[in-house]
Amino acid sequence: MVASTNTAQQVKELAEEKYKYGFFTDIESETAPKGLNEDIVRFISAKKNEPEWLLKWRLKAFKYWLTMPEPRWSKVIHDPIDYQDAYYYSAPKSAADGPQSLDEIDPQLLETYEKLGIPLKEQERLSGVAVDAVFDSVSVATTFKAKLGEVGVIFCPISEALEVCPDLVKKYLGTVVPYTDNKHATLNSAVFTDGSFVYIPPGVRCPMELSTYFRINAANTGQFERTLIIADKGSYVSYLEGCTAPMRDEHQLHAAVVELITLDDAEIKYSTIQNWYPGDENGRGGIYNFVTKRGHCRGRNSKISWTQVETGAAITWKYPSCILQGDNSVGEFYSIAITNNYQQADTGTKMIHLGKNTTSRIISKGISAGRANQTYRGLVRISPKAEGARNFTQCDSLLIGDRCGAHTVPYIECKNKSAIVEHEATTSKISEDQLFYLRQRGIPPEEAVTLVVNGFCREVLQQLPMEFAVEAQKLVGISLEGSVG
Amino acid sequence: MLEIKNLHVSVEGKAILKGIDLSVQPGEIHAIMGPNGSGKSTLSHVIAGRDGYEITGGRIIYQGEDLTGLAPEIRAAKGIFLAFQYPVEIPGVANTTFLKEALNAIRRYHGEDELDAMQFVKMMREKAKELGIPEDMLKRAVNVGFSGGEKKRNEILQMAILNPRLAILDETDSGLDIDAMKIVAEGVNNMRAPERSTLIITHYQRLLDYIIPDKVHVLAHGRIQRSGGKELALELEEKGYAEFGEAAA
Ligand SMILES: Nc1ncnc2c1ncn2[C@@H]1O[C@H](COP(=O)(O)OP(=O)(O)O)[C@@H](O)[C@H]1O
Ligand SMILES: [Mg+2]
What number is the ipTM of this complex? Predict the structure, then answer.
């Protein structure tokens, strides 16, 4: 049809999208020697003054990692990663001794976060969101600590948690994602540098949104952060992470691990707005986002809800999952993945039903444009003991142009006859009819596409905390529009 | 307002419009009638600037300006509105959001301030009330799950809010029961104004009992075969389109 010239134009505009977080901060850094070996693992551990048990754990992970093959089962394609050609530790010199109070922080760092739209100082004064800012390998600032402390909430870099509450870290670290889990998670266990730690005491409803902002700045540096969130009995927390990186020609590795634990009647709501540098329109550069996220509903009636908006990264490989062990526990996964140009995403979730009457809900919205490819890969496993378990899965894909692809790979393993598992999937295109209709009403093409895509994603966008919903909506627009924000 | 001169249009190499001449003055309402497949929707799409139509000859002049090459959203901003024969569904986008976006895009084009949510909702509610459109229809996703009649009423609501100079109604009456048609007609009549023109495309003369046109044209075989006053519509009702070499409706 002649009308597809319009779509071609659309795709061209999409391809010319600009990445507004692509700047680099020229800041003096302390960097470990290039490459990966046991000494680097020891170096990182020593830098952080870690206890002996953690160093041992790291070394075990490293030895095990050496024996592991690359994961091969996903649909993503990339050249072999040269692990020796990267730095595993880089920290701004001024932050060498851990996060200071905001007044002592290097103004250049504050400026960087301001440019990223995270004015740490203002955040402290104005908004109700506590932020932990992670710059390359270290946390540079955590806001609102005192206020959170009043109700017993611990929110700090994980390296600091090792000093403040070493027993909690020791008790839970690696219990949801063991160091043997997969090659990327094992690497993370060996060389993780920083990340956030959250503990919500029994019965406490965390009085504000917690958020961590990850920034990769240095060249050739991997970021391996580790996040651990524990919601004790009857507690609640909503946590959000955001990510950006400078534009660079080479790929950079981001292999994070996130572990969530909920005890009886507790709830964790975990939201991600991932906007790593995606590479240019020819597929050069961009972050490899290989992330292992898993939540463990240990207690009865507990709930873990993942919401993700994945717009960046050259390759996204992540499956935020829930182990539903406690009876009546609930797992949710709400996802928007947008891939453009040569971006690849292989993402989805695993819902492992172990307890009785456990329920899970999966809503996945994938949008592909340009030559991008994405796969939804999901597993719903109902174990023999999961009497009365229920799952509902809805996977929708939206294609923009005709050179992109979307695939849905749902695995269902049901070993209990009383369980109900439902799966629905659709694939659609933004139609010429829709575009013409919107344009006839005066709405320019880029805005029309944004509107349709936002409508398509609505169910997921609604899950985001208010403070971030608008930002996410804009991001959806930016990653598709070709406009500089 | 609108001058169409010897317009020839092809779709995928097939000639659909073969020399249309039409002149609509400000304040006038013209009806275009014709059998199915005669090119009525094609004409409305071409005026609105839809891609996929090749103009092989002739010109469309709107308010003294040749429309050739202007994008649909620019034509919309300049005051051309098309009520679609088949309104399109936009899942997940609330009617309110869509209309606010549309109105503000047009205001931006003219360098006017955008309306904020409060101002817009107030205005939208008023218009909806006039057209007997229930509140919940404003919140629902655009045309999703709307009945045929609701979709057509929604088109008229959009017209009322966007306040066009040239409104083209493509078979807005088809599929409407008599009450719904009266509401639509009232909506159009209320917007009758010296500076506005309306093109009513219809297959039946029924609607023209409620909206009195200044002129009626018969479109068949890609050409205007006859033009006349309101009485032409009645004649067609009686005789059908047989005279123009097509089977009666
Ligand atoms: N996109 C298209 N591709 C091919 N033929 C078309 C297309 N649109 C319309 N036509 C043809 O053009 C002619 C006129 O159609 P249309 O303008 O919809 O007529 P009407 O609105 O008067 O019923 C018909 O023969 C129809 O089949
Ligand atoms: Mg038609």
Answer: 0.95
